Each structure stands twice: as C-alpha cells, then as structure tokens.
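pasting for ref
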Amino acid sequence: MNDRPLILIVEDDTAVAGMIEDHLMASGYETERAADGREAIERVRQLHPDLIVMDLMMPRLTGGEAAKELRRDPLTSHIPIVAISAVADVTSIADFLPLDEILPKPFDLLELEQAIQRHLPPLSGDVAVNAAQPAV
C-alpha cells in the first residue's frame, strides 16, 4: 500500500498536465489525471484523491462546474481543490466558486506545490525539494 498522497490533476492541456505531474511525482506525490470536469468527477468518485488540482477553463464541464458538483456530494465535499486559471481576474471568480485556493496562470510549479502543502499533511520521509521550475 502506498502512503503517498494522491493528487488528481485536471487539465485539458496535456503539456501543462505533464509538467505538473512530473513536478508533483518528483516531490513525492502520487498523481492521476483527468482531461475535463466530467472526467474529473468520475475519477474523484473512483480514486478518492487527497487533493485536486483543477484548471477552470475546460471542455465538456468547466472546473468551476465540476467543483460545485463535487462539493454537493458528501463523499467528495471534503477534498481540497486548488484551482489554476488563465482568467485575468481570479479574485472575481474565487468569491463564487467552492475552491480552497486559486492560482492565476502562468504559475510557478513551486508556488503550486506550496499551495498543495497548505491543504495536506507534510510528506513523510526524505523527499527531495525541487529546484525552481519555469512558470506554467
């Protein structure tokens, strides 16, 4: 059994999702991916991740719509959601979406990791700290 926290990365841009996944895996997290909000809801119900990193602007079902649906379900309402978005004014959307934290794109991978750490217990064992990464 793996005791590393599981993070679901919900991002429709595969290059961005891959960079986030590589960084988080190197930092000691387990990761899974979903490409849109609808798939995210299915994967969350299947995997029960410890945290969700979710883009807000996606096809089929936006990250905001997915977050609202996850918050309505007692089985998933407790899972922290760290959103990332290219929306110019993230503070205007943060007030009406059920998110734990929101980072504007482009973001630094270390900034994302710090946001994740604010919502999860510290990793156990010797986990290498990643050097500064380019903005995503």
